[in-house]
Amino acid sequence: MEKEQLYVLKVSLSHAKRIWRRIEILGNQSLDQLHETIFQAFDRDDPHMYSFYLTKAGSKSRKRFAEAPEFTHPFAIEEDFGWGYKKLQDATKTKISELQLVKKGTFEYLFDFGDEWLHQITVEKILDLYPSEDYPKITEKKGSSPPQYPDYDDYEDEYE
User: What is the CA radius of gyration of the chain?
Assistant: First the structure.
Protein backbone atom coordinates (compact mmCIF):
# COMPACT_ATOMS: atom_id res chain seq x y z
CA MET A 1 0.00 0.00 0.00
CA GLU A 2 1.28 3.42 -0.98
CA LYS A 3 2.01 5.91 1.82
CA GLU A 4 -0.39 8.84 1.91
CA GLN A 5 1.06 12.26 1.16
CA LEU A 6 0.28 15.70 2.54
CA TYR A 7 -0.09 18.59 0.10
CA VAL A 8 0.68 22.13 1.26
CA LEU A 9 -1.17 24.54 -1.02
CA LYS A 10 -1.13 28.32 -1.27
CA VAL A 11 -4.48 29.61 -2.52
CA SER A 12 -4.42 33.24 -3.66
CA LEU A 13 -7.03 35.48 -5.24
CA SER A 14 -6.01 35.87 -8.89
CA HIS A 15 -6.85 39.59 -8.96
CA ALA A 16 -5.20 40.30 -5.57
CA LYS A 17 -2.28 37.92 -5.03
CA ARG A 18 -1.44 39.58 -1.71
CA ILE A 19 -4.57 37.91 -0.28
CA TRP A 20 -3.88 34.20 0.20
CA ARG A 21 -4.45 31.19 2.41
CA ARG A 22 -2.22 28.20 3.12
CA ILE A 23 -4.07 24.89 3.26
CA GLU A 24 -2.84 21.40 4.11
CA ILE A 25 -4.77 18.48 2.62
CA LEU A 26 -4.14 14.75 2.29
CA GLY A 27 -3.85 13.07 -1.07
CA ASN A 28 -6.80 10.78 -0.31
CA GLN A 29 -9.11 13.75 0.26
CA SER A 30 -11.30 15.11 -2.52
CA LEU A 31 -11.32 18.30 -4.50
CA ASP A 32 -14.72 18.95 -2.95
CA GLN A 33 -13.07 18.89 0.48
CA LEU A 34 -10.49 21.37 -0.83
CA HIS A 35 -13.35 23.56 -2.11
CA GLU A 36 -15.04 23.50 1.31
CA THR A 37 -11.78 24.47 3.01
CA ILE A 38 -11.19 27.37 0.59
CA PHE A 39 -14.80 28.47 1.12
CA GLN A 40 -14.15 28.60 4.88
CA ALA A 41 -10.68 30.15 4.52
CA PHE A 42 -12.02 33.13 2.57
CA ASP A 43 -14.95 33.65 4.98
CA ARG A 44 -17.64 32.97 2.41
CA ASP A 45 -21.17 32.23 3.53
CA ASP A 46 -23.28 31.70 0.41
CA PRO A 47 -22.55 28.42 -1.43
CA HIS A 48 -22.24 28.35 -5.22
CA MET A 49 -20.94 25.97 -7.85
CA TYR A 50 -17.24 25.77 -8.54
CA SER A 51 -14.63 24.18 -10.79
CA PHE A 52 -10.94 23.33 -10.57
CA TYR A 53 -8.93 23.63 -13.81
CA LEU A 54 -5.59 21.98 -14.50
CA THR A 55 -4.47 24.85 -16.73
CA LYS A 56 -1.08 24.99 -18.41
CA ALA A 57 1.51 27.06 -16.55
CA GLY A 58 1.92 30.56 -17.94
CA SER A 59 -1.27 30.53 -19.99
CA LYS A 60 -3.31 33.72 -19.57
CA SER A 61 -5.95 33.50 -22.31
CA ARG A 62 -9.56 32.73 -21.39
CA LYS A 63 -9.47 29.68 -23.67
CA ARG A 64 -7.10 28.01 -21.18
CA PHE A 65 -10.22 26.98 -19.22
CA ALA A 66 -11.82 25.35 -22.26
CA GLU A 67 -8.65 23.37 -22.98
CA ALA A 68 -7.90 22.30 -19.39
CA PRO A 69 -9.20 19.23 -17.57
CA GLU A 70 -12.09 20.44 -15.39
CA PHE A 71 -13.24 19.00 -12.07
CA THR A 72 -16.51 20.51 -10.97
CA HIS A 73 -19.53 20.48 -8.68
CA PRO A 74 -21.81 17.50 -9.48
CA PHE A 75 -24.73 19.78 -10.41
CA ALA A 76 -22.63 21.37 -13.18
CA ILE A 77 -22.17 17.88 -14.65
CA GLU A 78 -25.89 17.12 -14.45
CA GLU A 79 -26.71 20.39 -16.22
CA ASP A 80 -23.90 19.83 -18.77
CA PHE A 81 -22.12 23.11 -18.12
CA GLY A 82 -19.33 21.71 -20.29
CA TRP A 83 -21.60 22.65 -23.23
CA GLY A 84 -20.95 19.25 -24.75
CA TYR A 85 -17.43 20.04 -25.94
CA LYS A 86 -15.53 18.48 -23.06
CA LYS A 87 -16.00 15.89 -20.36
CA LEU A 88 -16.48 17.37 -16.91
CA GLN A 89 -15.22 15.35 -13.96
CA ASP A 90 -16.88 15.16 -10.55
CA ALA A 91 -14.87 17.01 -7.88
CA THR A 92 -16.57 14.99 -5.12
CA LYS A 93 -15.10 11.79 -6.58
CA THR A 94 -11.64 13.11 -7.46
CA LYS A 95 -8.83 12.69 -4.94
CA ILE A 96 -5.99 15.22 -4.71
CA SER A 97 -3.45 12.45 -5.40
CA GLU A 98 -5.15 11.65 -8.73
CA LEU A 99 -4.19 15.07 -10.12
CA GLN A 100 -0.48 14.18 -10.29
CA LEU A 101 0.50 17.53 -8.80
CA VAL A 102 4.14 18.55 -8.56
CA LYS A 103 5.96 20.93 -6.25
CA LYS A 104 5.75 24.54 -7.51
CA GLY A 105 3.03 23.52 -9.97
CA THR A 106 -0.16 25.55 -10.20
CA PHE A 107 -3.81 25.05 -11.05
CA GLU A 108 -6.90 27.25 -10.86
CA TYR A 109 -10.13 27.30 -8.88
CA LEU A 110 -13.24 29.22 -9.89
CA PHE A 111 -15.90 29.81 -7.25
CA ASP A 112 -19.32 31.17 -8.23
CA PHE A 113 -19.80 31.03 -12.00
CA GLY A 114 -21.66 34.38 -11.93
CA ASP A 115 -19.35 36.53 -9.80
CA GLU A 116 -16.27 34.55 -10.88
CA TRP A 117 -13.98 34.46 -7.87
CA LEU A 118 -10.85 33.10 -9.56
CA HIS A 119 -7.99 31.70 -7.47
CA GLN A 120 -4.53 30.43 -8.27
CA ILE A 121 -3.41 27.38 -6.29
CA THR A 122 0.32 26.75 -5.94
CA VAL A 123 1.70 23.45 -4.66
CA GLU A 124 4.28 24.52 -2.08
CA LYS A 125 5.17 21.10 -0.67
CA ILE A 126 4.32 17.44 -0.98
CA LEU A 127 5.29 15.60 2.19
CA ASP A 128 5.57 11.88 2.93
CA LEU A 129 5.90 12.44 6.68
CA TYR A 130 3.52 14.70 8.56
CA PRO A 131 1.79 14.96 11.96
CA SER A 132 -1.25 12.79 12.56
CA GLU A 133 -3.92 15.52 12.66
CA ASP A 134 -7.28 16.31 11.15
CA TYR A 135 -7.03 17.46 7.54
CA PRO A 136 -7.75 19.48 5.53
CA LYS A 137 -6.84 22.51 7.57
CA ILE A 138 -6.06 26.18 7.12
CA THR A 139 -2.61 26.92 8.53
CA GLU A 140 -2.05 30.56 7.54
CA LYS A 141 -3.97 33.59 6.27
CA LYS A 142 -2.54 36.70 4.63
CA GLY A 143 -4.79 39.69 3.94
CA SER A 144 -8.42 40.28 4.79
CA SER A 145 -11.08 38.32 2.97
CA PRO A 146 -13.01 40.57 0.60
CA PRO A 147 -16.79 40.46 1.01
CA GLN A 148 -18.39 37.74 -1.11
CA TYR A 149 -20.74 40.36 -2.60
CA PRO A 150 -18.85 43.66 -2.54
CA ASP A 151 -20.68 46.95 -2.79
CA TYR A 152 -18.96 48.13 -5.97
CA ASP A 153 -19.67 51.82 -5.26
CA ASP A 154 -17.76 51.53 -1.96
CA TYR A 155 -15.06 49.48 -3.72
CA GLU A 156 -14.55 52.18 -6.38
CA ASP A 157 -14.47 54.95 -3.75
CA GLU A 158 -11.81 53.08 -1.78
CA TYR A 159 -9.51 52.65 -4.80
CA GLU A 160 -9.95 56.02 -6.54
Answer: 16
Distance set, CA 105 to CA 46, 47, 120 (Å): 29, 27, 10
**One-character DSSP codes across 38-106:** HHHHTT--S---EEEE-PPTT--STHHHHHS-EEE-HHHHHTTTTTTSS-EEEGGG-BGGGG---TT-E
8 A C-beta contact, residue 11 and residue 108: no
Instruction: Check residues 153 and 4 and name the one with the higher pLDDT.
Output: 4
Judged against a pLDDT cut of 50, whether residue 159 lies above it is answered with no
C-alpha distance from residue 118 to each of 12, 16, 32, 126, 142 (Å): 9, 10, 16, 23, 17
Average predicted confidence (pLDDT) for the chain: 90
pLDDT at 1 (0 to 100):
43
Each residue's pLDDT tens digit, 56-72: 887 888 889 989 999 99
Helix (H) or strand (E) holding 19: strand 16-26
Q: Please tell us whether the domain made up of 6-159 is placed in CATH 3.10.290.30.
A: yes
